[in-house]
Amino acid sequence: MPVHPIEYRYGSNELREIFDIRNKILLMAKVEATLAEVQAEFNIIPKEAADAIRKAASEISYEDVKEEEKITKHETMALARALAKKAGPYGEYVHLGVTSNDIIDTSMALQIKMAGGIIIRRSVELLESIVSRGEEVADIVALGRTHGVVADPIPLSFKFAYWSYLVRKSLERFVRSLDESIMGKISGAVGTMAAMSELTDIDPQLIQQEVLDKLNLKPADISTQIVPRDALANLITTIATFSSALDTIANEIRNLHRTEIGELEEFFEEESQVGSSTMPHKRNPIRSEKVCGLARIVRSLSIAALENMVLEHERDLTNSSAERCFVPEAFLLLEEQIMTLTSVIRGLRVRTDRIKDNLTKYADLSLSERFMIALVKKGVGRQTAHEIIRRISIEAYRSGKKILDVLREDSQVSKYLTREEIEILSDPSTYIGKGREIAKKEFERAKSFLAEVLTYE
Amino acid sequence: MPVHPIEYRYGSNELREIFDIRNKILLMAKVEATLAEVQAEFNIIPKEAADAIRKAASEISYEDVKEEEKITKHETMALARALAKKAGPYGEYVHLGVTSNDIIDTSMALQIKMAGGIIIRRSVELLESIVSRGEEVADIVALGRTHGVVADPIPLSFKFAYWSYLVRKSLERFVRSLDESIMGKISGAVGTMAAMSELTDIDPQLIQQEVLDKLNLKPADISTQIVPRDALANLITTIATFSSALDTIANEIRNLHRTEIGELEEFFEEESQVGSSTMPHKRNPIRSEKVCGLARIVRSLSIAALENMVLEHERDLTNSSAERCFVPEAFLLLEEQIMTLTSVIRGLRVRTDRIKDNLTKYADLSLSERFMIALVKKGVGRQTAHEIIRRISIEAYRSGKKILDVLREDSQVSKYLTREEIEILSDPSTYIGKGREIAKKEFERAKSFLAEVLTYE
Amino acid sequence: MPVHPIEYRYGSNELREIFDIRNKILLMAKVEATLAEVQAEFNIIPKEAADAIRKAASEISYEDVKEEEKITKHETMALARALAKKAGPYGEYVHLGVTSNDIIDTSMALQIKMAGGIIIRRSVELLESIVSRGEEVADIVALGRTHGVVADPIPLSFKFAYWSYLVRKSLERFVRSLDESIMGKISGAVGTMAAMSELTDIDPQLIQQEVLDKLNLKPADISTQIVPRDALANLITTIATFSSALDTIANEIRNLHRTEIGELEEFFEEESQVGSSTMPHKRNPIRSEKVCGLARIVRSLSIAALENMVLEHERDLTNSSAERCFVPEAFLLLEEQIMTLTSVIRGLRVRTDRIKDNLTKYADLSLSERFMIALVKKGVGRQTAHEIIRRISIEAYRSGKKILDVLREDSQVSKYLTREEIEILSDPSTYIGKGREIAKKEFERAKSFLAEVLTYE
Amino acid sequence: MPVHPIEYRYGSNELREIFDIRNKILLMAKVEATLAEVQAEFNIIPKEAADAIRKAASEISYEDVKEEEKITKHETMALARALAKKAGPYGEYVHLGVTSNDIIDTSMALQIKMAGGIIIRRSVELLESIVSRGEEVADIVALGRTHGVVADPIPLSFKFAYWSYLVRKSLERFVRSLDESIMGKISGAVGTMAAMSELTDIDPQLIQQEVLDKLNLKPADISTQIVPRDALANLITTIATFSSALDTIANEIRNLHRTEIGELEEFFEEESQVGSSTMPHKRNPIRSEKVCGLARIVRSLSIAALENMVLEHERDLTNSSAERCFVPEAFLLLEEQIMTLTSVIRGLRVRTDRIKDNLTKYADLSLSERFMIALVKKGVGRQTAHEIIRRISIEAYRSGKKILDVLREDSQVSKYLTREEIEILSDPSTYIGKGREIAKKEFERAKSFLAEVLTYE
Fold it and tell me: pTM above the 0.90 mark?
């Protein structure tokens, strides 16, 4: 039975299969076969050899390779031997002129490309759901809060627009970092292509290009025994930033789901879902909590990925064990966060009743700025107006009264504002500035971006 | 097929089974059964119910629980229902007066206790191997190096003694942090034991004590819905420090294994092991490299564990998903490091030929301090003597000569030191101060500690 | 003007002066003078030389040393030269038989010892304030919350007891890790004491012991050119755990300070303090927010300290630049957190009115477990009782009624519980189990610990 | 005296002044003045008020503001009051319609823009020095190494080209992340521009645009009370990746500087520099070690910056204290690394003698692949050829002979290769494949990029 939750609990099967060790072997075999194919095209090896290797690659099993690894203690050499055995006499043409990491790094690039495609797909769904739910709630005005304390009101769509921004920018950066990471190499033991150069008069840079073209990858600008690990570190820190953006959104939903606020509720399967094994009334925002918890792991991986860049000379092996852990973890945990948040957003219950109640209850707190501005418009100096409202707030606090009540009775205020004016100003739903327009603009930007990213192959 | 290397590549099966999700279920069932047993002893539930629940706990399967979880979306509630079903009419006595985390945290403490025992056992083997190999090499004098540049010589045992110190202290801290972490709780929904208090007149603190006594655990000094996560954070950072100590040792072996130094060699299975798929001569220190690579992951987990302490109110759920990842990873990767380093130390080839060659070749660099001190003993002021030898070193560097050769010809030096004196001082093997004694003392400390830790149950 | 906030904003002047570069120079000079004193006692150097060096050490200025460093590019050598100049003819006895890090590491241990003493003092004040405020509120019953959702009630003292636990354990660990870190060394270039061994027949281990005794430090069990950095890494991760404990407490205060909860309020200087430059009513929990913000930095330092352990051979210099940053930052930021939280706790306004209102308002949510248990006591099976209350909760949720109202009318419930029984059970203030006793016990433990730690010299 | 090394030791004065708290105040005043100017242009406030505020802003001092902060406990409010006082009757127009973070975030964007410009300038110098030194050494062939063990040879320029790639890509990413971070905001208390909307009929989005245009900044796509912190987190992780790239290069120089390798030497001021206070011969790569040490701090800051993204509602204050630390640290420490590495690269001594010696000494190890390929070209199967050379390597290892010597005598090899052929193949300087071409291409890419980045305003 599995131990790590990315095996069975976090991430989709579709993504898991990409990082499955069996798939890794198959992709490595595919790179070997593609190399042979290109070498045959350049007449470096017989066409029949390339065919035999392609066939062997399609038949190779994980077990075949593990059997060889027991002997050689070297994963790629084990693969080469297993392929060679299957390819019969043509087996001698396997792995010609290359080093292990030509195969390992190129196949990792294939994995990352496929995995990245899935992340993009999932992110598109998340962004769509945020925009769609956000557009629905443009007419709802809710309390804003800063420092956990009531502040100016906002249209609820403004909050969704902020989330849209966070996901859109995260995805933009992800696409860019992914694109930069999809680099393979066929450059040999130290990156100079020396072995291949001796084997043939063809420029080995052409061979590298051709192999990677067939695999839909780009060559690294320069490689040593391996592709430099800066792009991977950049990809993982980008994933960590993405993950922290999702943490921000899920954390917000948790806070708005609080009993005492109750403005947004994570959905709950009432018929059967159990919130607590001992408190039967419980409806906990467990999905959002999971999104926040996983961010802790994904953030921490950025440290491993950064340390991982520092390799000695033309490479050392310290990256290998670290990457076996952090690459699949980063992708599968990010995917789990995205998918979970998508379902939370889609199922989110917008409690208009609670939103309205809260807005009414704390109206005066949400309007202190407005009254200060109103005084300014009547000719009071800004600093003076601030001090007047501050004084009124303190009086209200001390006496347990509402600010609005104190304000209505205040002799200094009444010099400037009539009862009617105060009444008109006391409606928080009209104090939202350009919130709706700003939100709308963001949704437009998100939709344009979605249209664009969907064409990403 | 698995994705994460802790499933199949890193860590022992013995340790893996402890963190296996099936074992987790069995341990949770064991806690439920122990609770029932204690409740029966205190006449809160019938003796027959406790027996039925114990029997159900021994028969429960992972699949039973997963079936229920599909409905409830709640792991512990699913377990309770599965147990209840198996226990027939007595099923109603399952999970009485407790909350999920009474079961989850207590069973996690059981896992950590068992896993910690394995780590201690592995560490003992590592420390023994270091001490044993260290004692073997007390007579060998080798170059010391600081900043990667040759410095005073050392007895080779001194280096092993430093490693012994690192592992001994790491293990001391681990035992202490582990001990502090083995806390369970039976304190209910928010830690006040309210439900149990209503159920019975027995002091629920007694019930908690009794359940944990039977499980060989301690109660948390105070718990909310969960055991506070500070002790776990402390355990994980202790593991990260341990891991970095192993990184230090493995990194040293890699450096001494370098072609140009070659004083220590990681063992190599000559008959079959392949060092490189393209450079057939290669003998790479791959095991030590793995130890260093894994430290990157383990170090990073300390961040996740520290963030994990911050929970709201009487708990939120963000710790749950994070811990599912970092707890098994920390243990399994540390174990892999320890086991790998043990095999490296045991198989380490001490190349006395290379050590001697290097010592001879760079003798003059390793003795510059000695000559400065020799001048001091002859009455030259310390700062003056330092400047004399510094001057000679520069002359040697510029002319490409050996320092010793320049020194022998130096008119200022010859005022104080005779040719014979210089010759005697020129033997680096006699310039090791108290290195051997210090190393010996450390080995004695390590052996005393080992004798003591072996009695740790 | 300064750049980094630890220069002027975070931490006390008292602590700042310890890490001040001028103090560092003075402490290094003190170590040199103590070394000379011991060497004079052992007749290695003239008594007059030791006196002259002691005098020079008392007169040395930061500027003297910086002048020399411009030439030598070596901090300790600059100090030795500056001391030597001041000591006149006896200057030649400065720094005899030692290496720079004998001075640097030993003086850093002095700094850490002094700084640690301040942290202990500050922590004692924090713990005292928590216990004292906690004991005051033992009679107040408040809502408990899990997942941000109302749960069983707790006595308010229980929350303070949890904080007491967090600070007490953090301080316990800090004292232990500090104690382990206060190690000096006088063991020379590679730790073998070779130079000193040649200078004199006295066992240099005695000299090391004597110097460190005079400085109230312990010798490292083994040192290379430097004291091993594992104890420092352990100290910094302990500080990071401490910092995260403070983050937990401050975060809780922020949540309880929320407008909609309002049970605890960070104090506010009404006469003059401004909460917002634009919203005059604002009373924000800015001190608690600062405590949480600083935890981000302190946590991150643990990574630097862990990486810092890995040094090559008998040392490399990579630790030096890193430690110059993370050591003072860790101490000063932790101190700022402790001092800030102490003032927050002392000034905390306990809003009994809001606590009571909330308890009444959400009583039914906080009692769902109690009613389940009440049914069990009347003979209903536990799982059945859970399902009954869950059903009632859903009905209440759907109809917008209070659970208690639905429960009173429920025909299934009324089979077991009378109106009177339901009324009695409906008082949340009697549903706090052993919360008060557990809190009291913790406060006793804290007071015992405080009595003990205050004797720590 | 200062405590933190960024005050006096790391980073340039030029950069330090940007983050100086006095400069921060001046920039905040500048934003206030620019706001007033735009408001005057739009006839929201009198032209004279804008002039008075501009004048006040030019005269304000740090001390003025600190005086006010003692009263208000609010930094921006203190600035507004200090400005207002200086502006006399027009002081009432200061800070009109905005919130503190309109000023704080916008001035931080100004700081980051200026600081980023300096980093770009420094990076350009570093990249130029790498390219220039790399082009000089294109004719030198040196040993390649993987796993610390000798591998195929490389042209020395290839190593510099790898460094060029690392710095070029780091700078590319830095420019992009910087560009994305230079966002200001004039959007009020919660981002809706409500106050400004009430003050005037002008669209406040125009006012924001106009203010930021004058300051050469861009508006955030959407802002709450603050600019979202994702772009800052992305900038800091980009800096951490850059820092790790420099760590890689400096670490390589340290390894090649080792006594036993000695191929590259960090420069040393022979006349005066002291390598060790006790070992007078020492020439340590201390500058490169510093670069590596600082990377530990910079990497760790990425964690703080990632956690820093997660803010509640329309903002909380936890970002404030954290950013005060990590923003200046990240810039100043990165700058120190870049400047230090530039001086190291410029002063690097290429020891062609040692390079040649090593190449000769370990020629046979560096050519094992070549002989395998040679056999393949003669018709031996690849896997068979690998096994032949592996066998020969083992024989050589066991007998202590050179591989080339064993190979020359090997009966299996002599079936395929003549003595003459073996002799020709035995010259490592001809086995560098396309290394020179690849390096040249990279230098061209770097030069194009430099030409482009230099136009970056």
Answer: yes
